[in-house]
Design goal:
With 493 residues, the chain is an alpha+beta fold. The chain is built from 19 helices and 21 strands. The strands form 5 sheets. Strands 3-2-4-1-10-9-11 form a 7-stranded antiparallel β-sheet. Strand 5 and strand 6 form a beta hairpin. The longest helix has 15 residues. It is globular, with a radius of gyration of 23 Å.
Length: 493
């Protein structure tokens, strides 16, 4: 393994506009049999940059040895030079771009992880979170395992290493049988590219093809950027192997148990991706149209909170007949390091990222459309900015139900007491934000936007616990905490 770069840490302020969002999970990419495997992987990670901006890594195999480059920061800042790509030779490679959900933002947690096992070298990249990762980690440490990182992905490598099975593929499936949660894996040995998706399909994984070379990746947008062909989604619970003989399914799942994550459609996936056969852009426009039906408003203009609120705002505008305008302009070149470490300047952070377009807002009744409200601090400042830019009324429409519960499957969500919808009623949130009206999309409305008649409470079609408290898997590491959340919700009705 080649040497990696030095770690860099950032001080996190008490309020940062970047923190008042649901942060992306992770993006994974792998290709087998291509002469430019590392370069193709870097391009794929560029397309997945929205899924994580804290660190990225690529591991390749050249027929004799593995090579790895892992860096903190953006893909483009670290993997755009020929010098770096030349240090990653070989016809197979996997890559990862991350936002830390389990483990901190330090270089030792940047993936792919690599280990020399009894069966040979093994590299692994992971999107999601293991809801029993801490429990398994403690067990492994008691048994003598030595961990180098704090990411739950390393748990899987230890489980593979300790499996009593003979063949590597059997060791891998044996390890998968011991974990719970939402996950998609891309792994690599000296002869194989491996993909796996959790039994409910919470986290996404797709199979593509580039000139006969199989690809595994988180989203179809990563296939589009390299001109690859989409083949199909990896099914829930499925494990696939790609090697010189082609692509082989070595474990199948139960199609009746499929429950993909709703937030892939609401927020995480790129609008030009297709997730589970549904174009994300179309779903988000449908969300806006249904939101207009459920929560109409007398206003002069519909304004999206960019960028994630844009498709829903277009749908709201088209369904309501209200004109759509860019009343907020986003500055794409502001990073966290630009926010200065004083409260007075931090308070201006939202203006660095979003600026009001007074030509649109002056003297207008504004309907703001955003994808979600998390803590509410940024939303409050945007509302104030609209009023200062001359809006006579500000109405807020949110393209998902209120977020009330923590996530344990890979979304970096604040603790429950930081979620504004957990602490306040809709009326209280409206008062806190200082808006003339506030409405959230209903859970049935969200399901209808995806082509379903509504939520089947007896057998939900999607993973939606952050809205409903209905966790689809055991959550061993958080059992007491989640039970307390659900019990408190029952008490307040």
């Amino acid at each position: 393994m080649t040497a990696s770069t030095e770690a860099v840490t950032h001080d996190v302020s008490s309020w940062d506009p970047h923190e008042d969002r649901l942060h992306e999970e992770c993006g994974i990419f792998g290709i087998f049999g291509h002469p430019d495997a590392a370069a193709i992987t870097a391009l794929g990670l560029h397309a997945l940059q929205h899924r994580g901006q804290e660190g990225a890594g690529i591991t390749s195999f050249d027929g004799q040895q593995f090579h790895s480059e892992r860096r903190l920061g953006l893909v483009g800042d670290n993997f755009s030079s020929a010098e770096v790509i030349d240090r990653l030779p070989g016809r197979q490679a996997i890559g990862h771009t991350r936002y830390s959900t389990a483990g901190g933002n330090v270089l030792r947690n940047v993936q792919p992880f690599f280990a020399e096992l009894q069966t040979g070298g093994f590299a692994l990249a992971h999107n999601g979170n293991l809801s029993n990762g801490l429990t398994l980690r403690r067990e492994l440490i008691r048994e003598g395992a030595i961990f180098q990182a704090t990411s739950d992905t390393e748990v899987v490598i230890h489980l593979v290493a300790r499996s009593r099975r003979n063949r590597f593929v059997d060791r891998f499936t044996d390890a998968l049988g011991r974990i719970e949660g939402g996950f998609a894996f891309v792994g690599m040995t000296n002869k194989k590219l491996i993909g796996a998706r959790d039994p409910l399909g919470i986290r996404p994984l797709v199979l593509g093809d580039l000139d006969g070379c199989p690809i595994l990746t988180s989203e179809t947008c990563a296939l589009d950027i390299i001109g690859a062909r989409y083949v199909r989604d990896i099914a829930n619970g499925e494990v696939v192997i790609a090697d010189e003989g082609g692509v082989e399914i070595i474990q199948s799942g139960d199609a009746d148990r499929l429950r993909p994550d709703l937030f892939e459609y609401v927020y995480f996936s790129r609008p030009d991706s297709v997730v589970g056969g549904r174009p994300v852009y179309t779903v988000r426009k449908n969300i806006g149209a249904i939101l207009a039906q459920e929560a109409p408003v007398e206003a002069d203009v519909v304004i999206p909170v960019p960028d994630s609120g844009v498709p829903a705002a277009i749908g709201y505008s088209q369904a309501s007949g209200l004109p759509y305008e860019l009343g907020i302009i986003r500055n794409h070149y502001v990073g966290r390091t630009f926010i200065q470490p004083t409260q007075s300047v931090r308070e201006l952070g939202v203006r660095m990222k979003h600026s009001a377009n007074r030509a649109v807002t002056q003297g207008q009744r504004v309907c703001l459309v955003d994808d979600s409200i998390v803590r509410g601090t940024t939303s409050r400042k945007i509302v104030r900015m609209m009023r200062e830019a001359g809006a006579t009324e500000v109405h807020f429409r949110i393209a998902c139900p209120p977020i009330k519960f923590a996530d344990y499957y890979g979304i970096d969500m604040p603790e429950q007491d930081k979620l504004i919808a957990w602490r306040m009623s809709v009326a209280e949130i409206q008062e806190y934000l200082g808006v003339d009206s506030l409405a959230f999309l209903s859970i049935d409305g969200l399901y209808r936007a995806l082509g379903e008649p509504g939520r089947d409470d007896a057998n939900p079609q999607f993973t939606d616990h952050y809205f409903t408290g209905d966790y689809p898997t055991p959550i061993t590491d958080h059992r007491g905490e989640a039970a307390k959340q659900i019990s408190l919700l029952a008490e307040v009705g």
